[in-house]
Amino acid sequence: MTPVAEVGQPAPDFTLEGTDGPFTLSEHRGERVVLLFYTMDRGSVCARQFRSYAANRHALDELGATLVGINGQGLESHRRFRRRDGVPIPLLSDPGLTVASAYGAAVPVVGTRRSVVVVDEEGVLRHRHVHTLGLGFATVADLRRVLADLGAAPRRLRWDP
Prior knowledge:
Blueprint (H helix, E strand, L loop, with lengths): L14 E4 L4 E2 L8 E5 L6 H12 L1 H5 L4 E6 L3 H11 L5 E3 L4 H5 L3 E2 L3 E2 L2 E5 L5 E6 L9 H10 L12
Parallel strand pairs: 3-4, 4-5
Antiparallel strand pairs: 1-2, 1-5, 3-8, 6-7, 8-9
């Protein structure tokens, strides 16, 4: 079993295939990175979560962080989800749940548990919240508060859907 990284420790590096091409965490040093683990592309709560991000795109852009969604489903499922629900961020495929496990977001039998992980500019894990029931999700306002608690205002986001 993979040990789970703790807040204050270096964030485990990874490379996953995504809807915008491969994503390697260490290539984003100098940026704040928000990893949004979610259960499934067809889930009703997941759809509400990502639709809320699309509806608040301007506020999402102003967070000054690189955001990615991660679950164990494949890229084709992720692409359909992005098109169908207007998902405004890249989605990464973690089929073996190795990344979810490393960040404490994997649950046996269930799969990926809805979680928010923030990695700072130095590559250190600074925040992790795992939703116990998975019925709620972090809103853009929640993400803004978490990032504000980390200190100085970060730079603007650098991604295009």
